[in-house]
Structure formats: C-alpha cells, structure tokens
Write a structure and sequence with these properties.
By secondary structure, chain A is α/β, with parallel strands linked by helices. Helices cover 33% and strands 19% of the residues of chain A. Classes of the chains: A alpha/beta (150), B alpha+beta (154).
C-alpha cells in the first residue's frame, strides 16, 4: 500500500505572501488549527498554525463552561502583527513523503516525528496530505475484510 | 482482536477535585497529555492539554501544533499563574466516549471515526482500565501491512 492510495488530494493552503489577517480568516473559515504554506507555483514552503499567530485568535467560544476564557484576552490578538506575512510566522521544517512512499514507511516517519499529519510532495509540489485518521479508515477496511472473508 | 489486546494499560487517572497545577505536574511527571477523570471509581470526564490550550494556559508551543511538530513535554510551558484556583472539574470534558475492553477493535475504530476523536477510554465493568488511541491503531495498521508484505514475499 502506497501513500497515493490513502492520501487526500484536496489540501487547503495559504500563500506565503498572505497577511496574518487573511490567514486568521482562513483558519476560521476552515475550522482548522493549521494549514500548509505554498508559493505561487504550489511548492510547499512551510506550515503555519493558529498558535504561531498567538493563542486565542478568534477561537469560537467553546460552550458555556469556558465563560472565564475572555479574562485572558486583554489585547486584541492581532495587535502588533499588522503588516506581518505568513512567511514571517511559518515553520519551514515540514515532514513530507512522496506519493510512491510505502504506507509502512509513512507510519514510521509519523511515529519518529510524533505527528499525526504528513504532507505529500512530488518534487517540491504539494500534492496531498495523509492524516492518522485516514490511516485508521484504511485499518477499518482491512479489519472488516478479515471479519467477513469473501 | 479485542480492544484489551491493543489498549494502553494501566492508565493514569485524575480526580475531579485535583487542582490544575497539580494535574500539570502529574502530566509532566508521567509525560502524558491527557487522562480520564475518575470520581469514586466512576468515569466522569476526560481532560487534556488541549483543554488548557483552549483557555490560553499554554504558551505558543503546540498542542494545536501537535499535527505538525513534535513537542516533547520539555518544550511545553504552562502558565501556572491562573491555574491555582481552578480544578480539573472546571475544564474537563464531561462527554466521554468509552468502549468496552471486550469489544472488537473494529467496533472501537468505528466509534472513534464516527466521533472524530483521537482516543477512547476503555472500561471494564464500569471501571476505567485503559486508553485506545489513534496512535495505537496506526501502529496496528503498520504491523498488519508488514505482515501482508512478508506473506507476499514468501
């Protein structure tokens, strides 16, 4: 089983030249904690997450138990970041695999790096992403097949 | 394969009236990021570093970042200043998804996928006995793929 058999090809990205405001809006819209950063050619150049911007950036209030959450947001979360670009905040070191990488090798990489999501590149170009959940879905198929042999 | 064959056990549990600062110390000592909350033998919730991050008690480093970089516990700084008065019960998630130790792994996988969560609390006759995480399942997949591979080569 190869990475290309399990990866998700559609990946939401942000341009490295995007502003922090644009990034923040994108993360809110997608309801994700982070996105890969690409250049104009679609090459993967880094990853950026909500925590890179600073904690508390327009996280939707989480239920009523967290009523105390506002206490810690004295400053506007984007204060001091006007004019900053995604490239200024992103992490450049990203663990990647190729579409032809064996899933066994992918899992090895995930375990060594302690991560749950790996981006797939062909050369430099970002072509997909594999999450631990994608792998659990594959596991489910295999277990179901074993439970009811044809 | 049963859940009990794959789960991590024993599991560290915390009491609901434990202070958050003591909980952080416990997590640091045990190098864990989350634990079931047990009150007089009953599973009443789960609490993790993500719950602290949500309340801004964690600095820049990680938790949300978990997917991209590997934060060893050493890099995690917890802002203890606001923790002292709060207890585990104040921040824990009360909706806990659990699975019986005797159930089949494939059933647990379905529960985990349906709820889109990363770990299940494993119970045996109402008592917390282990944790089954996405990581455990991914490593099972690896072992199964390796097994297939060696069969094909024979």
């Amino acid at each position: 089983m190869k990475v290309r058999d399990v990866m998700t090809e559609k990946v939401e990205t942000v341009l490295y030249t995007a502003s922090i405001q644009e990034l923040s809006q994108l993360l809110d819209k997608l309801q994700v904690s982070g996105v890969p950063v690409v250049d104009a050619d679609g090459n993967l150049v880094g990853v950026v997450s909500r925590t890179d911007i600073g904690s508390g950036v327009s996280d939707p209030p989480v239920a009523s138990e967290s009523a105390g959450g506002d206490l810690y947001q004295e400053d506007h979360p984007l204060a001091g970041l006007e004019g900053a670009k995604v490239a200024d905040l992103m992490t450049e070191a990203v663990v990647t695999v190729e579409p032809h990488t064996e899933v066994v090798a992918l899992i090895q990489k995930m375990e060594e790096a302690g991560i749950h999501r790996v981006f797939v590149t062909s050369g430099e170009e970002l072509v997909g992403v594999v999450s631990a959940m994608d792998l659990v879905r594959q596991l489910k198929k295999i277990l179901q097949r074993e439970a009811s042999p044809a | 394969m049963k859940v009990r064959d794959l789960m991590q056990s024993p599991v560290v549990t915390v009491a609901p009236d434990l202070s958050l600062s003591d909980m952080v110390e416990c997590f640091r000592r045990q190098q864990i990021r989350g634990a079931p909350v047990v009150d007089q033998g009953q599973l009443v919730g789960v609490i993790s570093l993500s719950d602290l991050a949500r309340e801004n008690h964690l600095n820049q480093q990680m938790v949300e970042n978990e997917f991209y970089v590997n934060p060893s516990w050493g890099s995690i700084e917890v802002e203890l200043r606001d923790l002292s008065e709060q207890k585990v019960a104040d921040l824990m998630t009360s909706r806990v998804v659990s699975v019986e130790a005797d159930s089949e792994v494939v059933e647990a996988v379905e529960v985990l996928l349906n709820h889109r969560i990363h770990r299940l609390i494993v119970v045996n006759r109402g008592e917390v006995t282990g944790i089954l995480s996405v990581t455990d399942l991914v490593l099972l997949l690896r072992n199964m793929l390796r097994g297939q591979d060696s069969l094909h080569r024979k």
